[in-house]
Amino acid sequence: MNREKKIKVFLGLLYLAVITSFLWIFFTNFSLAELTSYEFIKNNYYTLNKIKNSNFLFVSFIFVSFTIVWVLMLGFGSPIILLSGFIFGKWVGSIYSILSLSFGALLLYLIARFFFKETIEKKFSIKFTFLKDKFKKNEFNFFLIYRFVGGIPFFISNILPVLFNVKSKNFFFGSVLGMYPQIFVGSSLGAGLSKIIENNLEAPSLLELIFSSEIYIPVVGFIFLLLFGIIMKNLFYK
Question: Hey, where are the domains in the chain?
């Protein structure tokens, strides 16, 4: 077995072990009935808020570190973005999200480029070869558009730039600037959910949630970004 296959097997087993351990610990401590209980969520929200207020730097460090590891383990960005707003509010949460997600994505990109470049080229080069000329013309600007448009699972979008040999600084800053609008909207939604929990003793109805300004404004913002992203994709991915 060559080095690349050994690394792939090791990473696969590590990923499986981490996910299995997390799920076992989580469901050992919490039942499904508790997770779907509004009272349980509300009580734990207050507990989490107290811990954050008394140990802000420590909680921030844990969140950023966890996010980086999460990205390296090929996790999706959406849960992190919502959680950041829920815990830290839309402003601090969006900043923590964008920096940690971008740094984690950069590390994943560098690992993929060093260990799995040939495998990525075999699997994706034919499908995405039309983008090579665009990246060569103006790497940073096009990578910025690539990040803003999205439409690709997060972990795949982090390794595809291996095909174009994107510079590390362009990858990081392009990620920060390109992903921030979506992250701010998602973080605002998470912050809105925390405000609803804080201001309601009983679980609000679905209609109350939909027509709450903390919810519908971020949702409208998300729809706008989605439509704008589709237009950008049609313009630049031709």
Answer: 31-236
